[in-house]
Specification:
The chain contains eight helices and eight strands, in the order βββαααβαβαβαβααβ. It is of the alpha/beta class and about 200 residues long.
Length: about 200
């Protein structure tokens, strides 16, 4: 994930990778960004004074959630997404689904029923369905114009594939993987060019 130093000295995430200036790359995990903030590594990467918000990892997650929610909304408007247990189950049984979205705050019983159905269908049709849970019921509800949504599915199409990619990126960022320590030895191996400094990129 690329970060840049804004004109006011603040560090901001460049999710589209199109902001000008020197960039610092950090492994796209909440824990890794938090480690970079804690150890003051952005100042070292930019070789300049920077203002790093203590909640930068949470800010990044909020941006990823917003982008994923908006993308699911576009897929819905394009007719490439459905919401509600019955509609999702029907779409899964017809082998139309490329992504199952379960609200992160949904009950386990309903989520497990659909996930088990995904496993059965994958075995029968030899097709994989991504299971994602980065959005909560309120965010999913906003994507579908409702108060809340627990179960949703993406059907194949350009808008759905874009939404799937953003949801995958959000899930990766939220992953609870262990942190790779950013040690001085590792910092000496950082690749730096005139445009980019790399902080512990995998």
């Amino acid at each position: 994930m690329r970060f840049v130093r804004a004109p006011d000295g603040s560090v901001v995430a460049d999710l589209k990778q199109n902001l000008p200036g020197r960039g610092a790359w950090v492994t796209a995990r909440h824990a890794q960004v938090a480690e970079a903030v804690r150890k003051g590594l952005f100042k070292r990467a930019f070789k300049n004074e920077v203002q790093v918000a203590p909640d930068l990892p949470e800010q990044v997650e909020a941006l990823l959630i917003q982008r994923a929610r908006e993308s699911v909304s576009l897929a819905n408007k394009a007719g490439q997404a459905v919401a509600g247990f019955a509609k999702v189950e029907s779409a899964l049984r017809s082998n139309q689904v490329i992504g199952l979205i379960e609200a992160s705050d949904g009950a386990d019983d309903g989520r497990n029923k659909l996930k088990n159905l995904v496993k059965i269908i994958a075995a029968d049709h030899k097709s994989a369905v991504e299971c994602l849970s980065g959005l909560d019921s309120t965010d999913l509800g906003l994507a579908f114009g409702r108060s809340h949504v627990i179960h949703a599915a993406l059907m194949d199409g350009p808008a759905a594939r874009a939404a799937l990619a953003r949801l995958q990126r959000l899930n990766d960022y939220q992953a609870k993987d262990s942190v790779v320590p950013l040690t001085p030895d590792l910092m000496r191996d950082i690749h730096v060019t005139d445009e980019t400094a790399r902080i512990n990129a995998e």
